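Exercise 7b. Backbone tokens:
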């Protein structure tokens, strides 16, 4: 089976985390989100993947060409942004059978095997994963009938005017024949244009409501929330369950006898923790981290190759890759970016 990742967006709302990194490559528990998504796809038999890229496309291709990920990967780079529908149409030549489509900023526990089986059982032309949210006015709302087929789509209705609390979760199963209805070589919104057009032309769009966890990491707040949800057990990652193993990777690090680790904590490789340092709770420590003495780090996400001097305090913050934080610096509720030299309140 094949899958398409829509990975061309600039991730503007996630800046400065995306100033020098495409949004699908932002690390979730130390690994790019796109890599984690591919691992999930492999579990349901996907062996060929197409990336529709745009912003910083070379970063994606360089990463995935550097090692073996167990799937065949093809790249289609947009010269100009084509929207979600336009990006799908732009990759049409790769798909001649039922395939899966992902928005690349999604973290969810949707059972893809079950979703594909549901799609086939419903004999649908398209199946859309839907998730229930408290504030649907910020998303594309889906109404459906008693048989589980979509009847209308409303993009970002005004608060109080929502007719459903189920929204488009950004995961689809497509039959390739529906691609004929998407115009070529222009911007197309699959949400605002393609799906309503399919309904008008009598196509069957099934609504799959499986899965108990879903979030898009479109803002720094949501990016931090997904990590908090993983630590709390609300969202699962394959390598560790923090409800039963509070500290992941401890055996791979160098830690001073006087240092303390308070779980939950996720450690990458080649980490060195200095004397009288406290790490945790709720901390991601990326590979290559090194600390001085007497530091306190809690409720924060440190990307790879970060180093901090002595007496540094980091709380409720994100520190991006390669940052060097001098002794005595206090970081609270900030994004610390080496490139931009900015501290932004989260």
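Sequence design result:
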């Amino acid at each position: 089976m094949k899958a398409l990742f829509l990975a061309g967006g600039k991730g503007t709302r996630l800046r400065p985390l995306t100033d020098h990194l495409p949004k699908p490559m932002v690390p979730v528990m130390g690994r790019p989100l796109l890599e984690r998504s591919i691992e999930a796809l492999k579990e349901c038999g996907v062996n060929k993947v197409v990336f529709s890229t745009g912003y910083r496309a070379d970063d994606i291709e360089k990463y995935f060409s550097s090692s073996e990920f167990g799937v065949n990967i093809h790249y289609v780079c947009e010269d100009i942004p084509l929207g979600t529908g336009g990006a799908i149409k732009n990759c049409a030549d790769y798909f001649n059978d039922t395939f899966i489509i992902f928005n690349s900023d999604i973290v969810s526990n949707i059972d893809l095997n079950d979703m594909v089986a549901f799609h086939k059982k419903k004999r649908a032309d398209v199946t859309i994963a839907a998730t229930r949210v408290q504030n649907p006015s910020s998303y594309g709302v889906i109404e459906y009938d008693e048989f589980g087929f979509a009847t209308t789509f409303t993009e970002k209705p005004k608060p109080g005017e929502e007719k459903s609390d189920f929204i488009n979760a950004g995961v689809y199963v497509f039959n390739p024949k529906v691609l004929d209805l998407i115009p070529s070589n222009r911007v197309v919104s699959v949400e605002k244009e393609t799906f309503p057009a399919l309904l008008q032309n009598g196509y069957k769009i099934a609504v799959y409501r499986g899965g108990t966890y879903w979030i898009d990491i479109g803002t720094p707040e949501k990016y931090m929330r997904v990590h908090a949800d993983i630590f709390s057990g609300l969202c699962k990652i394959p390598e560790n369950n923090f409800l039963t193993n509070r500290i992941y990777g401890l055996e791979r690090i160098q830690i001073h006898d006087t240092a303390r680790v308070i779980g939950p904590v996720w450690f990458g490789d080649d980490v060195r923790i200095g004397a009288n340092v406290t790490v945790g709770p709720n901390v991601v420590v990326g590979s290559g981290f090194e600390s001085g003495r007497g530091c306190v780090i809690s409720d924060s996400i440190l990307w790879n190759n970060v180093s901090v001097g002595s007496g540094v305090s980091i709380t409720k913050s994100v520190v991006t890759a390669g940052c060097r934080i001098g002794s005595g610096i206090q970081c609270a509720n900030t994004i610390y970016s080496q490139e931009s030299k900015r501290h932004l309140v989260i």
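Instructor comment: Residues 220-232 form the longest helix (13 residues). The longest strand covers residues 166-174.
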